[in-house]
């Protein structure tokens, strides 16, 4: 009798353990050729643009979705308005604070436009994953801000809104974590072509043959007034030569991650010595057998462009000097030609580093470096919102598009 009871208790606890082990949520990432923005499927053929620095999920809504009855004075409404975008109205509940519904101000990461919108219950239809393959379909309820169609200007065709991936309470990773009882973590592998991968909620890292021992980690730094992800830089090298940026320049203002532009923006005190070192190293390459790169008329906003036929190719993209950004924690983010050059038109490739406008050299209110899409592609980025960012460059023979989106069984 006692044994039967024990077995029953054991069986019950095993069932409980199995159902409480929730799997993270997988979404394939597509790069839009026209805009160089990245999208994930949302539901019913609609997709959302990934905005790594965005604080909200927003989408057009057609009255079909249930409105979320969230009062203006509620904690959720405070979360929705915790990071007003520059130039957008400051939220206010007015005198009737208890009865007024919550208004959020979704903003377009590309144009900077924003609009007032209420919150509604949307759903993200995706698959769970064991880290290697999709496992089963999952529908995750998320709170999204309702945006007018005009807020979609400059976003990829077919997208209906934006999925913010910042470190805020109503960004997609935090919402998936709380709805699915998962860790507030997400993994991103942005593709150069083909389908990249987003995994929300932690779990085993994909590509274990590389990620199990090869990840470097750097602390995530939070900055007052912004939900964007920042890390702190120590130094930059071009090949073996240290770029003479002023001491602490990279720590002052930090290194911000952004998906709104395909290229990097650098503050003047970092930009000028870096492009100087880069062009010198490029000019020295023919001594090692590289072809002589021929400069051509620059295409705005770039200042350094080359006839792409005169740039050699190697497995890491165009044969240009490697740029290595050393981060706090000891790891180095190694950018090859894939990350430092962009094809801007047929026959012309430009250096994907652009000087920030309207910012003084050394001004710590601006980031020292804003890494863009090209700089992050083919890196596994493992965000642990509480503390750190893991990063690993996938080997050139593979890349982010190598994830297995077809189920194994
Ligand atoms: C989920 O996985 C199935 C089977 O692999 C696939 O057909 C479907 O497109 C996936 N759904 C999403 C949203 O990724």
UniProtKB/TrEMBL annotation:
It comes from the Eukaryota. Gene3D superfamilies: Acid Proteases (2.40.70.10). It holds the Pfam family TAXi_C. The keyword Signal applies. One of its GO terms (molecular function) is aspartic-type endopeptidase activity. InterPro entries: Aspartic_peptidase_A1 (IPR001461), Peptidase_aspartic_dom_sf (IPR021109), TAXi_C (IPR032799), TAXi_N (IPR032861), Xylanase_inhibitor_I-like (IPR033868). Keywords: Signal. GO terms for biological process: proteolysis. SUPFAM superfamilies: Acid proteases. Residues 230-391 form the Xylanase inhibitor C-terminal domain. Residues 47-202 form the Xylanase inhibitor N-terminal domain. Residues 1-20 form the signal peptide. Belongs to the peptidase A1 family. This is Xylanase inhibitor.
